[in-house]
Amino acid sequence: MSNLADSSHPTRPAIAWIGLGIMGSPMSENLIKAGYDVTGFTLEQDKLDRLTAAGGTAAGSIAEAVRDADVVITMVPASPQVEAISYGPDGILENAKSGALLIDMSSITPQTSVDLAKAAKDKGIRVLDAPVSGGEAGAIEAVLSIMVGGEQADFDAAKPILEALGKTIVLCGPHGSGQTVKAANQLIVAVNIQACAEAVVFLEKSGVDLKAALDVLNGGLAGSTVLTRKKDNFLNRDFKPGFRIDLHHKDMGIVTDAARNVGAALPVGAVVAQLVASLRTQGDGGLDHSALLRAVERLSGAQV
C-alpha cells in the first residue's frame, strides 16, 4: 500500500502554533480548515479549548507543541514575548527539530527578527518574519496582507501555508524586512484613522448626516480600506477591539524608533504616535484603534 493510502495529507507539514489571541485563534483555525494538522500552545485554557473544538491539538508546553513540528508559527504581542517563547531551555529553538521552519507572524522590531534568525541558524532552524495586516476581520476571512522577510527558498516553502491565511503575500527582502514594511503599514493606518476621526468630529459638529457623508467620501479619493473597515465603528461608537490601542502604541514606538535609526523624518507620524499614547494614558488602551475618535472628541470639548 502506498503512503497516499496511509495518510490523508502525506505531504502536508505538521504545524505548531504558539499564541492563540485575537489573531492567532482564527488564523490557526483557517489552517485546520485547509487540512493541516495543528498543535497549539497558549497561556489561556479557554483558547486551547477553542483550538481543540476546531479540530486542533492542545499542547501542555511550548516544548511539547514544537517537538515534532515541521513548521512552527508564532503570533504573540511584541518583541519581549517573541524572545520569551523562542529562547531558553523551554523555548522554541531548544526544542524544535533541526531543519524546522519558524514563521514569526508577530509585529516586532526589525532587529529582534534579525537576531532571532541568526540565533536559529546556529540550531539548524530556518526563520521568516511574516507580520500581517488586516486585523481580526482579515484573520477570520483569511484575506490578510502578509509581509515577509527572509530567504527566497524558505518563503517558497512557506507559501502554501501563508496562502491559507492571507491574500497578498510578498517577500520584501532579507530578515527584518517584513517587520520594516509592517511598521510602515502601522504608520499609514494610524495617520489614516486619525484623519478619519477628525473628519467625523468636524462633520458631526457641522450637523451633516454622518452616514451619508462617510459613504460619499469613501467613494472618492478620500476612500480607503481603513474607512471601509472602521466606518461602522465611527458611526456606532463601537470600539470593541479588532486591534487594540495598546498594540498600536507599541507599533508606533517601533516605527518612530526605526525611522530615527535610518534617518527618516516622520513629522505627522510622530504627532499621531503621541495621540495614540495619550489615548492609552486616558484608559482607552484596551479599545480598538478606531477609538482615536474619542481623543479628537475630547480635544473638541466632548465629555467621553
TrEMBL record:
Q: Which UniProt keywords apply?
A: NAD, Oxidoreductase
The 3-hydroxyisobutyrate dehydrogenase-like NAD-binding domain sits at 176-295
In what residue span(s) does the 6-phosphogluconate dehydrogenase NADP-binding domain sit? Answer: 15-173
Tell me the Gene3D superfamilies matching this sequence: N-(1-d-carboxylethyl)-l-norvaline Dehydrogenase, domain 2 (1.10.1040.10), NAD(P)-binding Rossmann-like Domain (3.40.50.720)
Extract the GO molecular function terms from the UniProt entry.
Answer: 2-hydroxy-3-oxopropionate reductase activity; NAD binding; NADP binding
What InterPro entries does the entry give? 6-PGluconate_DH-like_C_sf (IPR008927), 6PGD_dom2 (IPR013328), 6PGDH_NADP-bd (IPR006115), HIBADH-like_NADP-bd (IPR029154), HIBADH-related (IPR015815), NAD(P)-bd_dom_sf (IPR036291), Tartro_sem_red (IPR006398)
* Active-site residue list: K182
Q: Which SUPFAM superfamilies match?
A: 6-phosphogluconate dehydrogenase C-terminal domain-like (SSF48179), NAD(P)-binding Rossmann-fold domains (SSF51735)
Q: Which GO terms describe its biological process?
A: glyoxylate metabolic process
Q: Does the keyword GTP-binding apply?
A: no
Answer whether the UniProt record assigns the keyword Ligase to this protein: no
The entry assigns this protein to a family as follows:
Belongs to the HIBADH-related family.
Q: What is this protein called?
A: 2-hydroxy-3-oxopropionate reductase
Give the source species: Streptomyces regalis
Output the lineage of the source organism. Answer: Bacteria, Bacillati, Actinomycetota, Actinomycetes, Kitasatosporales
